Structure formats: C-alpha cells, structure tokens
Amino acid sequence: MRGRERGGDGGFVTAETAVVLPVLVLFAMGLMWGLLAVSAQIRCVDAARTGARAAARQDPVDAVLRSAREVAPRGARVTVTREGDQVRVVVVADPPLLHGLSLRIREQAVALAEETTGAAGAGS
C-alpha cells in the first residue's frame, strides 16, 4: 500500500515545480532590476551634486557638464541653469533595461554660487 501512495504524489511535485520555477525566475529578475535602478538613481544624485559643486565654483559650463556626465549613468541628460545666486543641475536618465518606457530617473542639486557667498561675508 505504501508504494501506491508515494507513486501518486510524484506528479504533484513536478506540476508545482513547473509553476513555481518561472515565478522565482521573474522575482529574481525583478530584484536585479530594482538593484540596478537604485544604483542608477544614486549615480544621478552623485552626478547632480558634482555638477552643482563645479557650477558653484564658477567653472565653465562645458567643464560642469563633463564632470557631471562622468559620474552619471550612460546616456543621462544633464542641464545646468542659474537662478539668481543659485545654480541648479538636473540629471535625467532612463532606468536600466527599460529604455522604451516613460519612466525616468530625475535628480537635481542646487548650490549657492561662491561669488555671492564671499560677497555676503565681506559686507558684514
């Protein structure tokens, strides 16, 4: 009798494995994509900060763009603007492996231009 009971369960294990294995693979791929997306976001934050520091030092715009693009993910768009005594650097990148979607990683950094910092300290 015991032999019959064991033989009947073998098909269930195969069917469960056939269902669970693709789910596990998709879950692992989702985790990997999430890790890559977080890494790209951190690189965008670093690139924006690097660019803002360079712009605050009054580096030429080409140098600011070059320094930010060195840190940013491949293919990222970097813009530098100045609003009064503040400089703003925005870095926009496509998430890894999903280039066709409208989802974008966007980070920005703002810094006070050094010329105004020195001028404010000299007046007091």
Overview of the molecule:
With 124 residues, this protein is α+β, with helices and mostly antiparallel strands. 61% of the residues lie in helices and 19% in strands. Strands 1-2-3 form a 3-stranded antiparallel beta sheet. A hairpin with a 2-residue loop joins strand 1 (77-83) and strand 2.
Offer a few descriptive terms.
61% helix, three-stranded antiparallel β-sheet, alpha+beta, 124 residues, rod-shaped
Residues in helices, as a percent range: 55-70%
In total, the number of strands is: 3
* CA(first)-CA(last) distance: 97 Å
Helix count, DSSP H or I runs of 4 or more residues: 3
Order of helices and strands: HHEEEH
| pLDDT averaged over residues | 83
Which band does the percent of strand residues land in? 15-25%
Please state the overall shape, judged from the principal axes of the Cα atoms.
rod-shaped
The main pleated sheet reads as: 3 strands, antiparallel
Kindly report the spatial arrangement of strands forming the biggest sheet. Answer: 1-2-3
Task: Give me the secondary-structure category.
Answer: alpha+beta
Radius of gyration: 26 Å
Uncertain runs are: none
